[in-house]
Amino acid sequence: MVNxxxxxxxxxxxxxxxxxxxxxLQGISYFAKFYQFMxxxxxxxxxxxxxxxxxFPNPIGLAAGLDKNGIAIAGWQALGFGFVEVGTxxxxxxxxxxxxxxxxxxSDKALINRMGFNNDGVSAxxxxxxxxxxxxPIGANIGKNKDTAIEYAVSDYVSAYRQVYAHSDYVxxxxxxxxxxxxxxxxxxxxxxxxxxxxTEARKxxxxxxxxHKPLVVKIAPDLSEMAVQQVAEIILKNGIxxxxxxxxxxxxxxLKHPFASESGGLSGRPLHDQALxxxxxxxxxxxxxxxxxxxxxxxxxxxxxxxxxxxAQLIQLYTGFIYEGPALIQDCLSRL
Length: 337
Hints:
Layout: H1 4-14, H2 17-37, E1 49-51, E2 54-56, E3 60-62, H3 73-79, E4 83-89, E5 102-105, E6 110-113, H4 122-131, E7 138-142, H5 153-164, E8 170-174, H6 189-210, E9 216-220, H7 226-238, E10 243-246, E11 266-269, H8 273-287, E12 292-296, H9 302-310, E13 315-318, H10 320-325, H11 328-336
Parallel strand pairs: 3-4, 3-13, 4-7, 7-8, 8-9, 9-10, 10-12, 12-13
Antiparallel strand pairs: 1-2, 5-6, 6-11
């Protein structure tokens, strides 16, 4: 698959971004079926990590957003990822924002998206999770529906959380996407406290019910100030949350000259590098060894991955870098860690 991507990439880049995304997902899904048909075992690269009470075959994972509906879970594992995060999913299916909503900034090795949590709903994802192989940990990333008022967001998160709990290895609360109106308000003190209390209360019940305690992760924005990061970290630690993902996409357009730079939405890829790294440094200062830090955003090479590890990340997630560099990026990152 690594070699195949060298000739597939020009074809995918010649297509509009969203159709190319769907075609790539189908290709990875078919690759997994062929892999299984041939009787091959998943060759997940070995560089084991223990984090959040889970065993990760290696620390390089797939970030949420690339496979919202869990279409190609087996394929991601066959490519060598050490963990896979699917979603973001919402309690009810929703179409997302109006197209076009995904833009490539090739000269910057970046993407701008305003997808808006387009997904088939949490029930559909659960059916995929039930059938998925668990050669590595699978995380479910959840959010609120667009038409749910922000003051009722907790009920959406708790509803989705209850459904994915039994079928995922950890759950991420996405409170930092810039593409759902007011969602980032959930990073503010009172709103974050209410959300975490609601979800952790549900976790206590589900842990007793299933006889298994599963880790919770919170994904934060790169646009937070140092003080805001410290406040978020304090609330997260007080509520027993095991992990923090730094970071989601940014609203910043600093230094961009590409014609698409004026498009609204979240920016990912190489231009996000410095912001995401800075937030990671702040988080490490705030949490020490008390939470697992997962680096995401602007990781385009093995050198970037090593830099995040040195800054305190135990796990690393790829998204835009994978789109531009393909499966070879997994090996490149692992070779530098």
